[in-house]
């Protein structure tokens, strides 16, 4: 009876995993402690995303804020400068924005590695077919999304906490429009379209480089 019960559990877990397994080209939201990390699923248990030291430093910056503080690009760069000044000469891991920038890149990894112990959700519905005049939110075909992703792999990513983060990257490869809802919460809506246009142009240039 015990063996049968264990087998039943294993089969149940397998079925549950299969039922929530994302498809190629899907947007994936991974819930971190203070923010949401984004990736695009590419099949065979792997995803492509932006990663590096700046992700860790971003979370440290957010942890340093009081409940009344609003995250800002200036505040983040000041935090990076302070981290650099406080680091030892031999500690390159926290050596500030310039060195961290060189180590922030686009890579393909196993989905479970990206997920770690955090929870995830397929997030296509957040953006698919959104109406925003002047911008496309109709998803490309799966093959087109994968082709766009592969043109980025291995490249250095010009990270910006609010203006060019992991979410901008993922929406760009799926729609051709770079946007981040989680960043827009802290920015003036008056300049939203300008920010989207600038971020989209930067990623177009990077993709074609």
From TrEMBL:
Keywords: Hydrolase, Lipid metabolism, Signal, Transferase. Pfam families: LRAT. InterPro entries: H-rev107_PLA/AT (IPR051496), LRAT_dom (IPR007053). One of its GO terms (cellular component) is cytoplasm. Residues 1-18 form the signal peptide. GO terms for molecular function: N-acyltransferase activity; phospholipase A1 activity; phospholipase A2 activity. Residues 27-182 form the LRAT domain. GO terms for biological process: N-acylphosphatidylethanolamine metabolic process. Belongs to the H-rev107 family. This is HRAS-like suppressor 3. It comes from Erpetoichthys calabaricus. The lineage of its organism: Eukaryota, Metazoa, Chordata, Craniata, Vertebrata.
